[in-house]
Write a structure and sequence with these properties.
Layout lengths: L7 H14 L41 H15 L5 E2 L2 H20 L10 E5 L6 E4 L3 E5 H6 L3 H16 L2 H11 L5 H12 L3 H8 L4 H7 L4 H17 L6 H14 L3 H9 L4 H11 L10 H13 L4 H13 L5 H17 L3 H14 L9 H12 L3 H14 L4 H12 L5 H13 L4 H13 L3 H14 L3 H13 L5 H27 L3
Parallel strand pairs: 2-4
Antiparallel strand pairs: 1-2, 3-4
Helix pairs in contact: 1-7, 3-5, 3-10, 5-10, 5-11, 6-9, 7-8, 10-13, 11-13, 14-16, 15-16, 16-17, 17-18, 18-19, 18-20, 19-20, 20-21, 20-22, 21-22, 22-23, 23-24, 23-25, 24-25
């Protein structure tokens, strides 16, 4: 068994999120799981630390249990090499989800999560999936393969409907009725099965429970029809075209005809049916969506392409593909040049990146300032390479213009940290962590600023806050204990450290109690 492959743990986590918790357009007639691309050099023993699932006497998971399971999975997910920390792409996708959220809440079952948070994975395959607790994961391949902003919104509406209708909690409870073992055992079994190791999968499931696993790995046809129907209601109420869901289904169908291996892998496990497409068309109409000329969509499409490859030769190959691409209209022209500029920046070819960016800016000159923000951010990043003071001035201007942009906020913090005097960075970051206390990146940057200024107690407190947000509560508590022992904290800082330590110790005790309620 290839348990030592480089991304094995991510393979496991994707399987539980994609199969056991949700599929984008799945049906109940699929065969054995064939997802997963990725590897890990670490041994799989980590899974034993995860709580077990399932209780034959329990009909459903509580909202507290469901939320806790999501936290556990996300804690592991964030450690994976393919987890993509890109605030610009996440801002774009989260804005779509936020627009859909009010309508989604009105369709929600009691105890369903009320908030939805997006995260990204570098993966060329077409996929989006939901986790317990309202988390929605997106492969960069989804943004690359979608043809319009509305199709991306349709994906989210479907995923959010699985969450609001509590399909995830129902499937996790079904695992209990099937007497599955721990989350970790399930993850390992699914990962082995996906690699064609059926005997290994059955062995890991302990006792030949492959049939039970097979039943637990996907929603029913009723769940899928429910998510289609509710998702279309959410789309319509949120102001999206009524045919967007049918358009996305047809897009998947067309991709499958291109013999794209990534899409075929998706469809083998999540087959489309003519009945579902026909139902979506009956509800939303069969008129095709008009071509999307939205600059922001195409810039994010190009950014996803540019950020997906991680090896140098793959980046060089993608940069050449951008060079050969043909644009049908100005937004695409700007996006092609922008994607090329992002890749050239990643390759360290900054002069060539600046030249490509100039072409993108010329093509996008007539677009609104908000849609040109990715271009202005990249220009500031390129400036930061050689002229940090000028970059800081440019970043301040962008942040003043777009104060709600996480990407602009993060870039300004980076620019200020690049200046010799870190006092302005610390002042900005202290303000921003108060205004945005759930932002892990800001806390990490604040820790760097505090350390540079010798404020080590404050550094450990900021590190503790970042750990807590990552789900590493015990590590956060340890950082606060270190902060208490570190000299130099004034009365105000010491009071905050003591208060946060008490709060996190209480939170950890609650987590332990919740974990005990998870079926053993």
């Amino acid at each position: 068994m290839r348990f030592a492959s480089p991304h094995f743990r991510l393979r496991c986590l994707r399987h539980i999120s994609q199969q056991a918790t949700v599929c984008l357009l799945g049906a109940a007639l699929s065969g054995a799981p064939v997802w997963a691309q990725g590897a890990d050099t670490r041994a799989p023993g980590y899974a034993s630390s995860l709580p077990t699932l399932g209780d034959p006497a329990q009909g459903s998971l509580s909202s507290v249990q469901e939320k806790r399971l999501g936290e556990i999975i996300m804690r592991e997910m964030r450690q994976e090499p393919d987890y993509l920390h890109d605030s610009l792409l996440r801002d774009y996708l989260q804005a779509i989800v936020d627009r859909l959220t009010p309508a989604a809440r009105r369709t929600a079952e009691m105890e369903a999560p009320a908030h939805f948070r997006v995260f990204l994975l570098r993966d060329r395959s077409f996929n989006a999936f939901a986790l317990p607790g309202g988390w929605i994961g997106v492969h960069t391949g989804l943004i690359i393969d979608a043809q319009s902003h509305d199709q991306v919104a349709a994906v989210f509406a479907h995923e959010m409907s699985h969450i609001t209708q509590r399909h995830i909690a129902q499937r996790l409870a079904q695992m209990g009725r099937d007497r599955l073992l721990s989350i970790g055992s399930l993850l390992l079994a699914v990962a082995a099965a996906s690699a064609g190791q059926d005997q290994a999968a059955q062995g890991l499931a302990m006792g030949g429970q492959a049939a039970a696993i097979d039943r637990a790995l996907r929603f029913s046809r009723s769940n899928e029809r429910d998510a289609d129907r509710t998702g279309e209601e959410v789309l319509a109420e949120s102001g999206y075209p009524p045919q967007a869901m049918a358009s996305m289904l047809l897009r998947l169908q067309n991709l499958s005809r291109l013999d794209d291996s990534d899409v075929l892998a998706f469809l083998q496990t999540h087959p489309l049916t003519s009945e579902r497409i026909a139902d979506a068309q009956a509800r939303g109409g069969n008129q095709p969506l008009p071509p999307d000329h939205d600059l922001m969509f195409w810039l994010m499409h190009a950014r996803a392409r540019a950020l997906t490859p991680t090896k140098r030769d793959a980046m060089q190959h993608e940069e050449k593909r951008f060079s050969a691409d043909k644009a049908a209209f100005p937004a695409q022209q700007a996006a092609i040049a922008y994607g090329q500029a992002v890749l050239l920046q990643r390759l360290g070819r900054f002069d060539a990146a600046a030249a490509a960016l100039t072409r993108a800016q010329a093509a996008a000159a007539s677009a609104p300032a908000a849609e040109r923000l990715p271009l202005d951010l990249l220009q500031t990043e390129l400036l930061l390479e050689h002229q940090p003071a000028q970059a800081a001035d440019a970043a301040r201007a962008l942040y003043r213009q777009f104060p709600q942009s996480t990407a602009a906020r993060h870039l300004l913090a980076r620019c200020l940290l690049a200046l010799p005097d870190k006092k302005s960075a610390r002042e900005f970051l202290r303000q921003q962590t108060v205004a945005h206390p759930q932002d892990i990146v800001l806390w990490q940057d604040q820790a760097r600023a505090e350390a540079a200024l010798g404020a080590f107690a404050a550094q450990h407190r900021a590190t503790a806050e970042a750990y807590a947000l990552e789900g590493k509560t015990e590590a956060a508590i340890e950082q606060l204990h270190i902060a208490q022992r570190t000299p130099g904290a004034d009365y105000f800082e010491a009071s905050i450290i003591n208060a946060r330590l008490r709060a996190l110790e209480q939170a950890h005790a609650q987590q332990v109690q919740i974990d005990k309620t998870l079926p053993q």
